[in-house]
Amino acid sequence: MAGRSSTPGRSVTSRALAVLGAFDTGAPRLSLSEIAERSAMPLTTVHRLLGELTDWGALQRRPDGRYEIGRRLWDLGLLAPVQLELRQVAAPFLLDVHTATRDTVHLAVREGRSALYVERVSGRESVPVVSQVGSRLPLHATAVGKVLLAAAPEDVAEAVLRAPTRETRHTIVDPGRLRREIAEVRRRGYARTAEEMSLGTLSVAVPVRVERPAGPAVVAALGIVVPSHRRDLLRLVPVLEVAARGIGRELARAQPFH
Amino acid sequence: MAGRSSTPGRSVTSRALAVLGAFDTGAPRLSLSEIAERSAMPLTTVHRLLGELTDWGALQRRPDGRYEIGRRLWDLGLLAPVQLELRQVAAPFLLDVHTATRDTVHLAVREGRSALYVERVSGRESVPVVSQVGSRLPLHATAVGKVLLAAAPEDVAEAVLRAPTRETRHTIVDPGRLRREIAEVRRRGYARTAEEMSLGTLSVAVPVRVERPAGPAVVAALGIVVPSHRRDLLRLVPVLEVAARGIGRELARAQPFH
DNA sequence: CTCCCTGCTTCCGACCACCGGAAGCGATCG
DNA sequence: CGATCGCTTCCGGTGGTCGGAAGCAGGGAG
């Protein structure tokens, strides 16, 4: 760039993106000086970039002077493949499961070593919410996570199993036991958890498979969460399976391959 | 910027944003040369910017070489106020209405002279879909639109009423008749349409109000769409009203003012 | 097999848009 | 009323950026 840059070698674009990167779930509304701090850039520079981003509609300014994500970025986000392909196809099926069971249903994909929650249907909150659309939870402590873990490439599974975090006192952190559990998920075709991520809840999940030239591939996991006093958890597995197959079939139709 | 720029005076940031702006609903996956064309920039320049945007995660590259919106932009989109405040609060209420009626329910806000659809719940499609989350439809031809129009500032309403587009053969395009209809919406507290936007469907909608220091403000519209052979449309108004009040109350609690 | 075409990637020198400290401004607080 | 805090405006020196040209890869025609 130019001028007496104190951090030479940094492109303008990367700075603009750093401004956007200052926003996250914990900080969705930020003032100029907060953004400058979070992005580690001079206040003046941030000010100029904010002007351009706001003009375009990437950000917008609130009456109180803070900035927040603008409509234009919301629009763009709707074009992301998770949203456009997976969510739109899956949403009606999640609704079906919810209608049949009245419990919280959600759909997740694997992103690196986390389960990324892509869609969620829940009525008035009967169970405390740990997962929200867009949140990432560990693969080894959730039912959807275990399903995704069982289908993950060897190196990812290895990395997760080596150092599992403890989320509650029931989280399985013994690599050997986790490994056996994952093997069982593969064999049985579903995964379950009992208060391993949040106390007071049980969960089951099944894989969503899509037929590919190279054989079926697990592209997502469909799970349901219930309060832990429920005893009939496994009764839900067939319901989930029906929905998961429906999603898989629709996906295969929507995107012939790839 | 620098170099033998053929369009001097254009900032780097605006170019990066122009690349993002090349993506829209009709073109969610683009190749390098398509983006260059759509953004009216030299191929080389676009190539460089794409590299940076992809590295950051704003875009991602598909196996076939095209680009699409990346996870990181999807994430940011989730932080937009429509999503974070309105949608999240409203979703359970839409679900309730859907459960009670089995019809397609949606929530829209006014954006300029359009109704922007913010959330939608529909089971397996019984009615052809014109509205999707993120789509914009005219204010004068949809039930949610009429509700929003009835609450819009005078200049906006004036502009819409002056030149209403014809969507179907039932669309009301006579300014005088539209004006009377809007007045009636204000009086009765709900709006309806009969095949004015898409043939074969009827719709009713009610306003979602939030208490403000300056009195109640209409922040959104809640509507329901049914096939046109249904005769009991107005029976749905009280159901919508209950849900709309619930949403309004939750919103007021979530954002004490503003 | 070779040639041509299309679309993407790499290279690099001239140049001007960008950087950010400094100063100004308006609101809030003690 | 002076001090402080946060935002906005100003402006000169310079290194990041621009984009034509050339190289490369893949695929289709002859």
From TrEMBL, chains A, B:
<dbReference type="InterPro" id="IPR014757">
    <property type="entry name" value="Tscrpt_reg_IclR_C"/>
</dbReference>
<dbReference type="GO" id="GO:0003677">
    <property type="term" value="F:DNA binding"/>
</dbReference>
<dbReference type="InterPro" id="IPR036388">
    <property type="entry name" value="WH-like_DNA-bd_sf"/>
</dbReference>
<keyword id="KW-0805">Transcription regulation</keyword>
<dbReference type="Pfam" id="PF09339">
    <property type="entry name" value="HTH_IclR"/>
</dbReference>
<dbReference type="GO" id="GO:0003700">
    <property type="term" value="F:DNA-binding transcription factor activity"/>
</dbReference>
<dbReference type="InterPro" id="IPR036390">
    <property type="entry name" value="WH_DNA-bd_sf"/>
</dbReference>
<keyword id="KW-0238">DNA-binding</keyword>
<dbReference type="GO" id="GO:0045892">
    <property type="term" value="P:negative regulation of DNA-templated transcription"/>
</dbReference>
<protein>
    <submittedName>
        <fullName>Transcriptional regulator, IclR family</fullName>
    </submittedName>
</protein>
<dbReference type="InterPro" id="IPR050707">
    <property type="entry name" value="HTH_MetabolicPath_Reg"/>
</dbReference>
<dbReference type="InterPro" id="IPR005471">
    <property type="entry name" value="Tscrpt_reg_IclR_N"/>
</dbReference>
<dbReference type="Pfam" id="PF01614">
    <property type="entry name" value="IclR_C"/>
</dbReference>
<feature type="domain" description="IclR-ED">
    <location>
        <begin position="72"/>
        <end position="253"/>
    </location>
</feature>
<feature type="domain" description="HTH iclR-type">
    <location>
        <begin position="10"/>
        <end position="71"/>
    </location>
</feature>
<keyword id="KW-0804">Transcription</keyword>
<dbReference type="InterPro" id="IPR029016">
    <property type="entry name" value="GAF-like_dom_sf"/>
</dbReference>
